Amino acid sequence: MGFLEFNDVGIDLGTASILVYVRGKGIVLREPSVVAVEKITGRILAIGEEARRMYGRTPAGLIVERPLRDGRIRSFDLVSKMLRYFMRKVIGKRATFRPKLLLALPGGMVLGFDMVNILRPMERTMARDDICDAADFDAFYAIYQSELNHDMDEANRIGGGLQTVRSRDIHVVSNSLLSGCIRNAKSILRGGGDRYLAVCPLIGLPNAIDCLAIVKQFVYDEKRVSMRELRDALRANWAGYEELHTAIGKYGHFFGNADPDSTECAHRLMDSLRRWNTGENYLHRKWLFGNLIGYNAHNVFFGRAMGATPDGRFAGEQTQFGIGQSGGKDRSGLPALLRSVATCDPDAVLTGPSVTNILLDAQIARDDAQFAKLIALMESYFRMGGTHFQLNYVSAAELRDAQQHPERHRSLRVRVSGFSDYFVNLNTDLQSEIVKRTEQA
To answer: How far apart are CA 239 and CA 277, in angstroms?
Structure first.
């Protein structure tokens, strides 16, 4: 076929085989989605039908892999090389144009997505009398973990009730396109689908880590305050304990500064979530934990219903969403913040929709040399284990001016939480959250 004959190309990326369709010509390629790889070097020796013929006949140094399995991509690197191979086979190596591609993937659905107030277990812990008898941080953490498990169990119970209500909706067209629903004679909301994700956003995650770090530092390591005094300060909403509140804000080992205390506390919390997440829940699948919100500011709703917490929060103050830091607590700069985020989750607990918000000095984006350094920094962040970041190149001063004079800033767009919008169109709570983000110079 001549490579000039192709304009619109469709690809069915299947677990067993790959189909390539060209408008006006029909299916022009059908081959197994397998790759023959050299074990030691990782070098690809064959793809598609040629690789399939090697199956069962390969020498010890070769393996035949399926980079897609159970409707999921197991190796993005192998899939990208396999797609490139098939496209070259169809279009030709000398193609001087880029065809319009339509890629078909296995259908599925995200279920759950019920926001969980992950700071609430700390509030419940600090209300208990037995924390005053905890001899060390390990004993305190054992009490906290029991409250964490209780709240996660309670969230699962409530989520199951919500799912029962959701399951009343049976959308015939959608379910007819989802694998398993017709075969099992059930909608996906009633357990009929083969492919679905169980997602659970944890709101207030940085606050929870900060609370653990402050308790460890101020009560047990440095002994600046007794547990009873800290508990009384929270009950008084810091009234009469202003000196302690100031000391926490000034000297606290907050998440985002790459210090050992907050890192250890982050690891402990992630490990507790990992051990709780056995898959024994109303969706019968392990949760993919995330931490983002949408247009509904759940971090504000949760915060309004809570009392003061050890990280310096006042009663009724909003909690944080995402995994990062704000309010100037990340005082060691952007490299330390990125290092904290990249290394806080060694067991990959946060595998759901997660967000890391960064507010940059606009000058960094305008200066080529500074921007090149930023790119290098972000590349290091991903190599260390980071999974996401989103940037705003706008000063806090400009954001505050937009709040006061929205008519001057109609075109100001910002990243919010996995989405962008015009700043002046956001509700006051979301605007305030963006303004509070630490401006990284």
So the answer is: 39
CA distance linking residue 61 with residue 135, whole number of Å:
56
Residues 6 or more apart in contact with residue 215 via CB below 8 angstroms: 137, 140, 227, 230, 310
Q: Are the C-beta atoms of 303 and 319 separated by less than 8 Å?
A: yes
The two counts, helices (H) then strands (E), for the chain are 16, 18
- The burial of 186, by beta-carbon neighbours within 10 Å (0-12 exposed, 13-18 middle, 19 or more buried), is given as middle
Residues 74-94 pLDDT 10s: 788 898 899 889 888 887 765
What's the one-letter identity of residue 330? Answer: D
Percent of the chain with pLDDT over 70: 95
The token duo for 35 is 């790759």
Determine contact, residues 25/10, Cβ cutoff 8 Å.
Answer: no
**Would the pLDDT of 53 be above 70?**
yes
Classify residue 20 as exposed, middle or buried by CB count within 10 Å of its CB (0-12, 13-18, 19+).
buried
3-state secondary structure 231-277: HHHHHCCCCCCHHHHHHHHHHCCCCCCCCHHHHHHHHHHHHHHHHHC
